[in-house]
Amino acid sequence: MLKGLDSLGLKYLNFCNGTFPKEIKSEPKEKKDAGDFNILVNPSSRFSKTMWPSQASARDSTLIGPCVESIFGSLFAVKNWKNFLVASEWHRQVFLKMSPKKTKGKNIFVWPIGVDTEKYKPKDEKVKYDCIIHAKHRNPNELPYIESVLKKLGQTLHPQSLRWAPPGIPGCGYLPQAITERCNECKYCIILDGAETQGIANMEIMSTNTPVLVFDVNAHYNYGGVHTPIEATSVPYFSDECGMVLHEKEYNICYKDNHDGVDKYKDLPTDNPGDRRGIKWKENYAEEKLSEFLKNL
After folding, report:
1. Which residues 6+ apart lie within 8 Å of 194 measured at CB?
2. Mean predicted confidence (pLDDT) in 1-7
3. I need a labelling partner for 116 at 20 to 30 A (CA). Which of 155, 169, 241, 260 fits?
4. Do the beta carbons of residue 249 and residue 109 sit within 8 Å?
5. What is the mean predicted confidence (pLDDT) over 206-215?
6. How many Å separate Cα 2 from the centre of its chain?
7. HSE on the CB side for 2, CA within 13 Å?
8. pTM for the whole structure
């Protein structure tokens, strides 16, 4: 996100590292105030008229963002903003529908941060495999199922899938540079994600210019009383030019809307009508959609 601003040569004040105003210094040691900047990155609830008096009368051109809000609050705590930058259209719709009155008359722009920067650009290397899979927070039975579909279609799979798991589990886990290296060896990526914390890995995959096919799920972490007014997604920062997203309602015969949080989500189908649904794939769906995706590569 910050590399995107750097690539445009823009000045910004970075709050991402939890820096307090008195500790902000420019190059080399000159103190700065928020009023000296037109772009504020992630101004949390610390942003106030008391701490930033000059910004209380900020110019209308002030742009707040890129801002990744997982628990809402800081966007609406700042009263005098006019322009706001978000990472995806899904992200934008959440803000608009979360508080239509407070966003009325505001400019909320979509910029797929990370996707159009140079850090993860492909190298001039020969493709070795057809597909790599990014798997995280999904039923463990789904990965071998998708692998079997790929094999049936004659697709070669990268031997080292991008699999997340708690430390200590063999064959899982990866370093950031592994995303670039492995994606650059493949034609495309399949994302089997359940719920991201920051969604960084998915954005890095998209930024490698590797086409992605996402089997989405309508599941999310339960942040107490905070629930999105639109359907949840496992890829909230997905950008349409990067591939195709298939929503769970299209392939899960046990699908049921899941606005109530991940605590009500069951990984496996159940006969108990009081339980929420799990994942049970429609027959031949993955094969048909993957074939369609491959034709458009």
Report:
1. 136, 137, 138, 217, 219, 234
2. 71
3. 155
4. no
5. 90
6. 16
7. 10
8. 0.74
What average pLDDT does the structure give for the chain?
70
Domain boundary among 79, 110, 141: 110
The C-alpha atoms of residue 82 and residue 234 are separated, in whole angstroms, by 29
pLDDT at 16: 52
| H helical segments located in the chain | 2-7, 74-77, 89-98, 100-103, 142-152, 176-183, 200-207, 248-251, 285-295
In the chain, the number of structural domains is: 2
Q: For residue 49, what pLDDT band results from cuts at 50, 70 and 90?
A: very low
CA distance 164 to 143: 12
Can you give the residue range of the structural domain that contains 59? 2-110
Torsion angle, alpha carbons of 226, 234, 115, 64, to 10 = 0
Assess whether 60 and 97 both reside in one domain: yes
- Asked if residue 210 lies in contact with residue 241, where contact means CB atoms within 8 angstroms, the answer is no
Q: Tell me, what's the pLDDT at 260?
A: 47
Looking at the fold, whether 70 and 160 belong to one and the same domain comes out as no
DSSP 8-state symbol, 220: -
Can you tell me the mean pLDDT for 263-288?
Answer: 61
| Assigned domain for 232 exists | yes
Q: Tell me which of 45, 76, 110 is where a domain ends.
A: 110
Under 8 Å between Cβ of 219 and 258: yes
CATH number of the domain encompassing residue 250: 3.40.50
Q: What is the DSSP code string of 71-133?
A: SS-HHHH--S--EEEESSHHHHHHHHHH-HHHHTT-EEEE--TTTTSSTTPPPS----EEEEE
Of the chain, the percentage scoring pLDDT greater than 90 comes to 18
User: Could you tell me if 289 and 150 are in contact, meaning their C-beta atoms sit under 8 angstroms apart?
Assistant: no
Point out the least confidently predicted range of 68-77, 161-170, 185-194. 68-77
Over residues 20-40, mean pLDDT = 46
Do 90 and 137 have their domain in common?
no
